[in-house]
Design goal:
The chain has 96 residues and is mainly alpha-helical. It has one domain. It is 69% helix and 0% strand. It has six helices and no strands.
Length: 96
Amino acid sequence: MLWVDYMVKAALHSRGSAEHWFRYLRKYIDKCGTVFTTVDIDKLRSREELTMFQRISLKAAFTEGSHTRKHIIDLNEHGKHDMLSAVRAKIKEAKV
C-alpha cells in the first residue's frame, strides 16, 4: 500500500477528531524531517476524501517552522508526558 493510500484511509478514519488526525501525521514527522517529497504531499492534498481541515493541516504539518508541525513534534516527545505523570503522582500523595 502506498503512503498516500494509507493516509487517505487514516483521513477517513479520523474525521471529526483533529487530535486523531495529528496522531497519524506524527508517525511520519519528527525533528529530523520526513521522508516524503512535496510531490507525495501534493498528491495526498489533491485527494477528494480529505476534508478542508485535513488538507490545510497537512500542508502546515509538513511546513518547517509552522505551529502545527511544532505541535506534532511535541506529541512525539514522551518526556513531557512523563513529567506530567510525576507531578500528578505528587499531587495525589499530597492529598492523602
